[in-house]
């Protein structure tokens, strides 16, 4: 009569290594991720899945690894421990008891983490953050000063130009309304232009034409708006990322006029 070997007993009770491997794959966790979470060497987890006991530390530590691995994967740790005990080769048990160097080997995971750890000086981090904030503050100051020096005179000229074109002819002490009417009706059919404003989100848009009429003024909701008036148009937008503009069915590159997502410019065909 022959007696069943340890491998036969393990197969009878179920392969704990196969259960561990199947549970890990079902959970979609790699050996590297599991090793990092459990602080167990990758080669030890692989040895558990392959039931390669020669690559594991002594039985007590290897059994503890199997139980922790089972808990991490959501398996029954008691069942895994029982299967591990049944599958563990008898010839390795005396070696595990007498091998006093083996229990120290798993500490290699802690040494690995210590070597890879990067230590930061809190004062150095605070200093770097302070330098970044100061740089941003100085950049904004320079940008705002440049904007005031370059755009303020232009806006004044644009405002005067728009008023002169739309209302200059109306300032006539003798003709009065008649002069204003002639100024606004000259080539009315040919001098008007069409604007299409498309908003992907809420934004403040102010548009006036050369006659001083407010074609759009204030906060606007998402949608498409078609406007018609006498160019040039004075356009002000508070967030160009939410606005698209077309003049006579031709797209206008708002980013060319934007500063800090805000734009203020005069537009003509």
Automatic annotation (TrEMBL):
<dbReference type="Pfam" id="PF13464">
    <property type="entry name" value="RodZ_C"/>
</dbReference>
<protein>
    <submittedName>
        <fullName>DUF4115 domain-containing protein</fullName>
    </submittedName>
</protein>
<dbReference type="InterPro" id="IPR010982">
    <property type="entry name" value="Lambda_DNA-bd_dom_sf"/>
</dbReference>
<dbReference type="InterPro" id="IPR050400">
    <property type="entry name" value="Bact_Cytoskel_RodZ"/>
</dbReference>
<feature type="transmembrane region" description="Helical">
    <location>
        <begin position="120"/>
        <end position="142"/>
    </location>
</feature>
<keyword id="KW-0812">Transmembrane</keyword>
<keyword id="KW-0472">Membrane</keyword>
<dbReference type="Pfam" id="PF13413">
    <property type="entry name" value="HTH_25"/>
</dbReference>
<feature type="domain" description="Cytoskeleton protein RodZ-like C-terminal">
    <location>
        <begin position="199"/>
        <end position="265"/>
    </location>
</feature>
<dbReference type="InterPro" id="IPR025194">
    <property type="entry name" value="RodZ-like_C"/>
</dbReference>
<dbReference type="GO" id="GO:0003677">
    <property type="term" value="F:DNA binding"/>
</dbReference>
<keyword id="KW-1133">Transmembrane helix</keyword>
